[in-house]
Task: inverse folding
């Protein structure tokens, strides 16, 4: 029997045309989850995103970049999947630009962003510290980093891999539970880059809506044991300044 592959990044090229296709089940859960999480981010930004310079690292097919641009942000999406970027370009407005590059080394200037997004990304990386460092580099003083990811717990592994992948709610091989990131580990990564956490939101599976739609539907939760979103701020002044 062939061993199941984990963290299969080729999914995003093989199925790159399906990001926005309501008839394509590959990214149905990601479309649902992205909508929920954008709502959480908006609740943390009382002034909204209009006029902000946003960098979306690991943007995929633009599930974050395109709506943020539609809300008035000026967005640069970075991803290494050419097929996904082609799909994102088809949906993009004049406020969106896309760059094919490794998010560990984005060809963007220091201090070019008011907001950096790392949505459903760091659990796929060999070294998420590098991505957090790059995000911090891109931020202006006072800028914000948004991160959403899966917690490194047994419960998260069961729900995200054994259940969600086993039932086909997300593609088999999407995740490797060994790469999941605990909130305290993310806090440590951010702290090494001078970032300070402002908000943390635990997430829970909305069971009945998930079963009705056959796609993952999230709700706000008191616990971050499965997945969570966090917002970090880059200080206005250097530490010790």
Result:
């Amino acid at each position: 029997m062939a061993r199941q592959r984990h963290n299969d990044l080729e999914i995003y090229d093989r199925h790159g045309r399906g990001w926005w296709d309501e008839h394509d089940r590959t990214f149905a859960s990601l479309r649902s989850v992205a909508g929920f999480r954008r709502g959480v981010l908006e609740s943390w930004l009382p002034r909204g995103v209009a006029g902000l310079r946003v960098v979306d690292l690991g943007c995929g097919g633009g599930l974050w970049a395109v709506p943020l641009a539609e809300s008035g942000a000026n967005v640069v999406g970075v991803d290494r999947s050419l097929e996904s970027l082609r799909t994102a370009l088809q949906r993009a407005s004049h406020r969106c630009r896309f760059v094919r590059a490794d998010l560990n080394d984005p060809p963007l200037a220091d201090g070019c962003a008011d907001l950096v997004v790392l949505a459903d990304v760091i659990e796929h990386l060999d070294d998420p510290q590098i991505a957090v460092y790059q995000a911090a580099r891109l931020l202006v003083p006072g800028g914000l980093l948004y991160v959403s990811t899966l917690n490194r717990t047994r419960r998260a592994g069961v729900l995200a891999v054994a259940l969600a992948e086993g039932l086909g709610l997300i593609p088999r091989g999407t995740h490797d539970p060994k790469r999941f990131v605990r909130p305290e580990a993310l806090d440590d990564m951010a702290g090494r880059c001078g970032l300070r956490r402002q908000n943390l939101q635990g997430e829970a599976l909305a069971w009945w809506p998930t079963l009705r739609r056959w796609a993952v539907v999230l709700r706000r939760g008191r616990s971050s044991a499965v997945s969570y979103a966090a917002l970090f701020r880059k200080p206005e002044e250097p530490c010790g300044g």
The chain has a mean pLDDT of 94. The radius of gyration is 17 Å.
